[in-house]
Design brief:
The complex is a heterodimer of chains A (364) and B (379). Chain A has 364 residues and is mainly alpha-helical. Chain A is 71% helix and 0% strand. The chains are: A mainly alpha (364), B alpha+beta (379).
């Protein structure tokens, strides 16, 4: 047995001998296997040691100690200590950062809560998202609840990234469902129109779509219809999301046997009733793993708005080491921002995997 | 509403009204946009149409695989952008597919250490936005030491903040491309159609390639020039050899690592789909593990792998657009610079979209072809 074929360890009653057995079959089965195990274990150990040395043991932590950074040979977290407010909140007024913090917490709580099966009905989920997004907007903007007004062009950093993400998902999800239904319509103009739009948007890079919304739309629309640049970009991003999501829903629709609709019709249910009581609940369930995947992709893709001039977390990271004093410590800033992204995306991804496994079990 | 269950029937008046209304709305929107563009362009004193393609640009950009000058026409500049996107995309597709298959096989391996290393790779590079990885590699590369303190490999290849300098054949680009094409084609034809001992086939291929290379040098090399040009430090910069710019290196590293992590997951999924009985049957025939893997497991897995792999290839092609973030002059960057310089927004956006539709369509056809070839006969 070698690396090339997967062999699950045989069940053994004793715990210690089980570990030995696993080691025997999965690490030292053949001489070649043993060499591979030792080489890759050494590689992993070396990488872990380098990372720990750099990030913890030799690191400098406090902003006051920045002078020690040059000779420490480790990470200079002083830059994060000194500039984390800029990275997280961008140009948002300094004394109002508590509002930005609360707003971010609202969005993160919304995402975490919607992972819980208790909220998995159409009404609860939409209430949750509208409430979460609404409290974010009220807190950030301020004037509607009697606080000092902060306009969208002053939003930035992680708060802006979360804003883009949540509004794209919130607007894009019903749009995607609408497109999926239009795609299934028996009216040729409607279904072909939807198909053309979906295929067109899906074959273009996201950046092209966003760039068109930011730069070209002002040429096409009369002034009074243009709106803010940020809303145009969010709408275009939501359209992108919707086109991919529509295809995911389509897969869900195809998985439902025809007989169910016919049975509903035979019971005298209306088309709308069949859709909302029989078809859609199953479509959502079937589409759930891919939807989570799409949400994760969307969160990652929000990072490209820096190209069309938004001050998102990546732009504020660049600004954080942009001044002469901090210029040598770009690596620490990128690692910090990367870690934030990684935590979000990794945990959502693991959750998606867990859900997929759980659904496979329930279908057996 | 539900097409699949609707009985065959003639459209009702209501259907017709809805569709006519929808068509009407679309027409009004398009017409409104066109008139709006026309008035907006008139205000700016611009004329629409593709006449601007003949004008020379008068601006420069960071990178090109082809000869270029500041007097190039818009048409040529856009072509260069298209070629940049295409070549970069192809390089990234090939490299990330190779790396992805390697890591994916590691993810499926029974060896724990191999498995853990592959998992770490995938979890790091898949869970951080591509653009962040890209600017990170770019920042690392521009903070490299300058040419005088360049890292060198046996004084033949150098890496500095000006890029990577490697030895190169002293051939004009076109001849080099033709030669490579000939060598690859000859190898393919010999491998496919000549029935002989493998060693003889390999020998014939090497001899043919060598002959072609000698012929190419005889025809194009001026007398008294060495066949290989090696980069050399002269003053503050390198002379000779081939310079790979740091923008290109950063793009390749960033996209390949990210793409490979995704492809690895596709490959792992495919390998895990292969039924256990099939593998056990091959093992019980007494085949060696490597043979089982190469001749049974991978060919079966490929049928599940190819369709999602095609999607990854298309994704990689689209991902080249973010090169603009580090100043790599791909098609998107050339188009957006052209827009700010010439103002011909709609035409240029149209060209950009057409180019990507063309690339995606071609790739999709290629994947379909691969799929058809690999399909199990009689299924």
């Amino acid at each position: 047995m070698s690396v090339m074929t997967s062999a699950p360890p045989r069940p053994v009653d004793n715990r210690a001998s089980a570990i030995l057995e696993t080691l025997k079959t999965r690490a030292f089965a053949t001489p070649f296997d043993s060499v591979l195990t030792i080489l890759f274990a050494l590689l992993l150990a070396w990488m872990a040691a380098t990372a720990v040395n750099w990030a913890f043991i030799n690191a400098v932590w406090r902003a006051e100690d920045v002078d020690l950074c040059k000779d420490s040979g480790g990470a200079c977290w002083s830059v994060i200590d000194a500039r984390h407010r800029l990275i997280l909140f961008g140009l948002y007024p300094y004394e109002l950062h508590w509002r930005s913090t609360l707003a971010c917490v609202a969005i993160i709580a919304t995402v975490i809560l919607s992972c819980m099966p208790v909220f998995w009905t159409l009404r609860r989920l939409s209430t949750l998202w509208i409430a979460g997004f609404g409290s974010y907007f009220l807190l950030m903007e301020g004037s509607l609840i009697g606080l000092q007004q902060v306009t969208t062009d002053q939003w930035g950093g992680l708060a802006l990234t979360l804003f883009l993400f949540s509004s794209v998902v919130l607007i894009g999800m019903p749009m995607g469902l609408g497109l999926a239904l239009a795609r299934r319509s028996k009216l040729p103009v409607v279904s072909y129109g939807a198909m053309l739009l979906i295929d067109f948007i899906r074959s273009l890079p996201l950046l092209t779509t966003l760039f068109t919304a930011a730069v070209v739309i002002p040429l096409l629309l009369p002034d009074w219809l243009q709106g803010d640049k940020i809303w145009r970009v969010i709408l275009a991003f939501a359209l992108f999301f919707a086109c991919y999501q529509a295809e995911i829903f389509r897969g869900g629709f195809q998985a439902i046997p025809k007989g169910q609709e016919e049975a509903g019709r035979a019971l005298g249910m209306s088309t709308l009733q069949i859709l909302s009581k029989i078809v859609l609940p199953q479509v959502f369930r079937h589409a759930l793993p891919s939807t989570i995947n799409m949400v994760v992709v969307t969160f990652k893709e929000t990072a490209i708005v820096i190209i069309i001039g938004f001050f998102d977390i990546l732009a504020s990271a660049n600004a954080a080491f942009g001044t002469g004093e901090w210029a040598p410590y770009y690596m620490e800033v990128y690692v910090f921002v990367g870690l934030i992204y990684w935590l979000f995306i990794f945990s959502l991804g693991q959750y998606g995997e867990y859900l997929k496994r759980r659904m496979q079990i329930s279908q057996r | 509403m539900l097409a699949s269950t609707a009985p065959l029937r003639l459209p009702t008046p209501r259907d017709l009204v809805i569709q006519t209304l929808l068509l009407g709305v679309i027409i009004v929107v398009v017409w409104g946009a066109v008139t709006s563009v026309r008035t907006n362009l008139e205000v700016l004193g611009l004329s629409s149409g593709f006449g601007f393609l003949e004008r020379s640009t008068g601006w420069s950009y960071s990178f090109s695989f082809m000869e270029r000058s500041i007097d190039d026409s818009y048409a040529r500049t856009l072509t260069i952008g298209f070629v940049n996107t295409l070549v970069l995309g192809l390089i990234c597709i090939v490299l990330s597919t190779l790396l992805g298959f390697l890591v994916g096989a590691g993810r499926d391996a029974s060896n724990m250490a191999v498995n853990a290393t592959a998992t770490v790779f995938v979890q790091i590079f898949r869970n951080i936005p591509l653009i962040l990885q890209l600017v990170f590699w770019y920042a690392v590369l521009i903070h490299m030491p300058g040419p005088r303190q360049a890292m060198s490999v046996m004084d033949l290849a150098f890496l500095s903040n000006r890029g990577m300098m490697v030895p190169a054949l002293n051939l004009p680009l076109a001849t080099g491309v033709a030669l490579t094409g000939f060598v690859v084609l000859a190898g393919f034809l010999i491998a496919r159609f000549v029935v002989m001992h493998p060693a003889i086939k390999a020998g014939a291929w090497l001899a043919l390639s060598g002959l072609a290379a000698m012929l190419a040098f005889q025809l194009t090399l001026p007398p008294d020039t060495p066949v290989v040009s090696v980069p050399e430090l002269k003053g503050l910069r390198f002379v000779g050899g081939l310079t790979v710019s740091i923008e290109l290196i950063a793009m390749i590293i960033g996209i390949v690592l990210y793409g490979a992590a995704y492809i690895a997951e596709v490959v792992r999924g495919g390998l895990q789909e292969v039924s256990k009985g099939l593998i056990e049957a091959a093992q019980s025939l007494g085949l060696r593990p490597l043979t089982v893997w190469m001749k049974v497991k991978m060919p079966m897995a490929l049928r599940t792998i190819i369709p999602p792999l095609g999607n990854q290839w298309i994704f990689i092609m689209k991902a080249t657009t973010i090169g603009v973030a580090i100043g790599f002059s791909d098609l998107f960057m050339i188009v957006s610079t052209s827009i700010t310089q010439s103002g011909q927004t709609l035409e240029l956006i149209g060209i950009l979209m057409a180019a990507f539709l063309l690339i995606n369509f071609t790739l999709a056809q290629l994947v379909n072809l691969l799929n058809a070839r690999l399909k199990l006969k009689g299924h």
